[in-house]
Amino acid sequence: MAEIIRRSKPLSVSPLKSSQPLGASLAILGLNRAIPLLHGAQGCTAFAKVFLVRHFREPIPLQTSALDPISSIMGADDSLFAGLRTVCEKHHPAAVGLLTTGLTEAQGTDIHRVVRNFRERCPEFQAVRIVPVNTPDFSGCLETGFAAAVTAMIAEWVPSAPSDPSDASHHGTSAPSSQRGESGGGGQPRQINVLCGASLTPGDLEALRELIERFGLHPVLIPDLSDSLDGHLDAEDYHPLTTGGTLPAAFMTLGDAAATLVIGAALDRAADLLQQRTGVPTYRFPHLFGLEATDRLVMTLAGIAGQAVPASVARQRAQLQDAMLDTHFLLGRARIAIAADPDLLHGFSQLLAEMGAEIVAAVTSVTTPALAQLPLKQVHVGDLDDLETLAREREAELIIGSSHALDTANRLEVPLLRAGYPLHDQFGGYQRAWIGYRGARQALFDLANALLGHAEHAVAPYYSFYSRKADARPEVRHGATPTFADSGRWH
Fold first, then answer.
1. Most exposed: 102, 143, 254, 440, by fewest CB within 10 Å?
2. How much is the pTM?
């Protein structure tokens, strides 16, 4: 059980966490022909847009109700109504994610009532799916906002299954795969629902889809960032809506699946709601980092599919084991500091624990129940300033964090392994796969190479008793090997 040390400072210095509206926007961007509409001041949306554009290096569709000072004080319902009407008339989206911000939450806007009024007064837009989500940016983080949006999608769009006492799935037991997810209700044969957490990158989702399909199963990813934000060129230069992602109509078929996989502890509430609505058996994974977690996923898929593990997957496992053997000399007892949202922190903690590394500092953005289950002594809820203080005191050799942690790593003169949001100072971070056997293998190589580049491997030079006095010896840069020309100047 990890000890959770809560924030003690009255302010954030070099903030770690990103806002809930940003995380909810990311979840909406995983839907096909969708657009997030942030209800608040124009600057709130501008910040989120710049954040996501710099991370994905793609045009990001976002809209705002653009509150002015008068509407912020006198009432914002008219601005929200007008914004919804404009988006529906101009862009004809399949889905709109209506998200609040700190301004409108403090004002007390009831977005659910506004949506009901909009439905009554604008029946011509009944085909547009609207999902309202309360996401105040003065609480929570990107991960909790993402989870709130996924929960709201399920609440709005997944129909309740008819109650049947004879149905074993309603009592928490798993029906045989031959009886579920075959073809009924328009669902795909052998369908698998996958609730994807905010810690999964588009590259992770591609790897996860490929792994599930190797067992002859059809995954429905919710949401599917690997299809909408994977970095692909399209025939048209610009789209005002998302291109690719989960079809909103797919939510109607979730009850026809053989099973539901839940990746990330932050989605526990969404998983509970989906199981209540559909009765589909649920398998939960806090993360998919490292050997043990991937083994559990693979054996779960083998059980659902009713077949043996494919030889290609078994070979990937053997490759990971070889990588663990190769890198354990560097990673064993390595002193590492991590700054990340809870689910991502959990994944890296488990991966490093399997290698015998020592996590000397773990800082996260918010308090969640899952933090107590981490294989750590302490978890600090704080900011990057707390990470820097702890890493310096405890002599960390490597830092894992977003691009915002680069200054911290430079001041401490240690390498930084970039992970999480945002990654704006390197190309392709969003496409990086961390999960599964292949993802863990590459992560171990990157961790070992980062430590190898900063390791002190040079043999200290021997100074003869007969050499000149010590102050005449050349200054050798820390960590560098003295050359023959250097030694020749003072011998």
1. 102
2. 0.86
